[in-house]
Amino acid sequence: MKFPKNVRVKEVGPRDGLQNEPHWIETEDKIAWINMLSQTGLSYIEITSFVHPKWIPALSDALEVAKGIKRAEGVTYAALVPNQLGLEKGLEGGINEACIFMSASETHNQKNLNKSIDHTAHLLSQVTREAKQEKLTVRAYLSTVFGCPYEKDVPIEQVIRLSETLFEFGIDELSLGDTIGAANPVQVISVLEALLKRFPAKNIAMHFHDTRGTALANMIAALDMGITAFDTSSGGLGGCPYAPGSAGNAATEDAIYMFEQMGIKTGVEQQTLLPAIQWIENKIGKALPSRNLQVFKSSGLC
């Protein structure tokens, strides 16, 4: 197997992690946590989502969070923006990157966005164009690439078609989502073989949920295919409100441990990251599934 010397770990916990939490996390605690993450060596943090509060009430304080954090040099602060209004709020909040999103399966797109895929694509083309005019980079999430909670298998032809559409809009990076944590390494290789014939590996990221414990194995397969960008969530926080039973992303600290032990540099300091994750675990009030967090707590260093 061939592995890169460096990978980009993209922390999505403050958005993808907290959006599914049933208990309100205070705005000042979200800000404090993001500020802690900014000091760990992470170069990318997705801080919130500028969606309507009725859809994601846990992130209804998005603008206050975006305005309240302390920016660290060299860190990209991104946020999810579903439409032009969301982009306007994101710009007001000072984000560096706009993240747009849609599903590869029609039913999940309808459940998640209350729109057809075609209608969603039309709106996202406008958002991408306007974000680019404002000198932001644009990242697109394509969900349910490896399986849908409603339609089960998603044809690779559909994934290819929508990926082509998103890149035609002018996005800088496409994150392929295993929304329900159903992917396996062979499937990851198969999907990437199809997509990498059309798009450079440097413009593709992987977003694996760990519902069935295969996220790290899937990362290994993607690494071998030349992928160097991975979405992770501190502590293994997360899940999708419209994918019942799905677990959070691979834990940031578990992925970093694996990469570093393999000789792949991440630029992230575990000794700074783990206390920050312990801190948010206490605020959430429940144990998080991360393996390395359990080791850290049992060591007596926390």
UniProtKB/TrEMBL annotation:
<keyword id="KW-0479">Metal-binding</keyword>
<keyword id="KW-0456">Lyase</keyword>
<protein>
    <submittedName>
        <fullName>Hydroxymethylglutaryl-CoA lyase</fullName>
        <ecNumber>4.1.3.4</ecNumber>
    </submittedName>
</protein>
<dbReference type="GO" id="GO:0004419">
    <property type="term" value="F:hydroxymethylglutaryl-CoA lyase activity"/>
</dbReference>
<dbReference type="Pfam" id="PF00682">
    <property type="entry name" value="HMGL-like"/>
</dbReference>
<comment type="similarity">
    <text>Belongs to the HMG-CoA lyase family.</text>
</comment>
<dbReference type="InterPro" id="IPR000891">
    <property type="entry name" value="PYR_CT"/>
</dbReference>
<dbReference type="InterPro" id="IPR013785">
    <property type="entry name" value="Aldolase_TIM"/>
</dbReference>
<dbReference type="InterPro" id="IPR043594">
    <property type="entry name" value="HMGL"/>
</dbReference>
<feature type="domain" description="Pyruvate carboxyltransferase">
    <location>
        <begin position="7"/>
        <end position="274"/>
    </location>
</feature>
